[in-house]
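user: can you give me the structure for this one chain? tokens are fine.
assistant: on it. calling the predictor now.
[tool input]
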Amino acid sequence: MSFIDKIFGGKQEQGDTKSFWKTIKSEDDLEKAIKESYEHKVAIFKHSTSCFISKTVLKNFEKEIETSEDQNASFYFLDLLAFRAISNKIAEDFGIRHESPQLIVIENGKPISNASHQDISLSQIAI
């Protein structure tokens, strides 16, 4: 990773992904996440790999997850630059304006909470 990428939030390095993330790379992956929301809450983190703010919020959110004792949700990660069509589908299907970074919490197939930027917190899942 170049010096500029480190400062301005270039693409994530391989191996940088935390083990609790499930990735959304297709409409099938999104459908699996929605189906899973009928068993327990699902949190979808929409991340822009070229944005420093998004990278900072992601790191802070990951720290919250790692230090939490109560993990009653599945965590899905969407690289919205690589999979913008999926991000647009989420916004359209759930009626939630696209933002980045953004956390959308789904339960029983419907969004119950969403937040963006510095408002993203593990507390959104407890709602």
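assistant: here you go. The helical segments are 3-8, 27-36, 52-67, 84-94, 123-126. Strands lie at 21-23, 41-47, 73-79, 102-107, 110-116.
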